[in-house]
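Objective 1.3, modelling of assemblies. Example input:
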Amino acid sequence: MLSVKDLHAAVDGKEIIKGLTLDVPAGEVHAIMGPNGAGKSTLSYVLTGRDGYEVTAGSATLDGEDLLALAPDERAARGVFLSFQYPLEIPGVPALTFLRTALNAQKKARGEDEVAAPAFLKLAREKAAALKIDFEMLKRPLNVGFSGGEKKRMEILQMAVLSPRFLILDETDSGLDIDALKIVADGVNALRAPTRAMLVITHYQRLLDYIKPDRVHVLAGGRIVASGGPELAHELERDGYDKYARAA
Amino acid sequence: MNLAAAIRDRDPSELPGKRDEDWRWTDLHGLIRAVPEASAPVDPRGVGQGPFEHLVQASHLIANGRNDAQIGIAAGAEATMALRLVSRGSGSHTTRVEVSVAAGGRLTLLESYEGDEGGYVGHASLAIDLGDGASLERIVLAADGAEGVSVSEAEVRLGAHADYAQTVLAGGARRQRIETRVAHPGGGAKLRLDGVYLLSGKRHSDQTTIVTHQGTDGVTSQMTKGVVRDQARGVFQGRIVVAQGADRADARMEHHALILSDRAEVDAKPELEIYADDVACSHGNTVGALDEDALFYARQRGMPDATARALLTEAFIGQVIDRIGHEGAREVARLWAADRLRVG
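Predicted structure (tokens):
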């Protein structure tokens, strides 16, 4: 699935990712943990192709295809989805309109038939119900005036509707109370499949009690400095990042 | 300076221009060396259908300023009417339209400026009078030709508890100006003045409003949004005057513009002149580009760059169009905007 090799990336000429190597096979969930400023969000933006995040060396491929050569929307059409740490407010665009435009743009890029309005509404209604999102909310401009928790749930709803193959969750637990966290985690777990993979970026171990990772990596100083099983997350929760921050 | 007089007398020295503070960004004096001769008559059968005619029972047509018009709504009566001001060729013309809505009457006025590719100089002066408790929604679709010069000036007088709502949709011209002056009596009278300008090529459009709050407790809400590209130029001048004694006025003015190319220009002058006490007046004015974060967000969800830009731009303008009360006119406005935003 995702294969990142010796990746270097800079923002405003300053190197943030410094030789990162990572493999996430299909069917697995990998967690990336690390202290603030380790490059966690930078990694998510580099993988999704945000302007201003310049790759200076290394490679990132999805099923062998060079991701770095693709525009952000082309990566999305290949199935890369980023759940944003801070989802954007889009004034004037109802959530349903935004989501349907996105879904049909992806389908068009893949040479698939577009989804007609009735079928789309049925799909959105189903997914919203599963995430306990009031359908009326989807008629409002996307994320405008939504609480932090509502915005995160909207991210998961978009993920459920767009049905991506490679999911990046950037600090999805921040701003969520425990009930909302369970709903979000259920939504994410429902998407676990042998054909999908996930990268769960988080500062805290809490989220990983609900979304159980197959592997945990520690990102510090722009590199993966340690990898292990789920127990590594507990160790980090207990001992903190100091040891790794020094190693970086 | 008076454009009507300049056209009538064919005297360019009477054209407004740079020396007039309110006209410095729409300098007709500097532009027009000689006022063209009077426009030729136009056969009304040859002008086709207007943009709003499918929505109305009655339509007034003024072609090349040949006839003046009176539109009157009796007390308590209700109507939806189209007013078409059509310019053809390269002459000059001026017209005067009187609109009156008597006490308790309701009028939806769907006004269109329709130009061809000629270098005409057209002028319209409207006197709009609302009686006590009367209401008027005026939608102005200014669809002039790229070579035309078109100026519309409206003088609006509101009775007590009158309700006046206006939305100007401007596509620009060689020079285009839509000016609205409102005498606001305060009290229960309500005023909404909105505008949209979508400009490309070398088009220019100027929306100027002057609202004078003359009585206490007046409410005014203004929202204008523009999108300019290529070498186009948008002008917004909004002045709200709260006269002495017009206490507790509540006036909100917003103007926001997107500039989509390096050579496009927006000039904005929001002004509040307050001579009364205890007022709640504000203005917000922004001129910039599309939000890069929102663009990336939309693209990460799978929208190609052009789709994402079109969606965000339509949404930006949609916030003004959504305020149009008349459903049919709102749809015309939406299609007009979508059509123009897809260009380029």
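Residues 112 and 141 of chain B are 5 Å apart (CA to CA).
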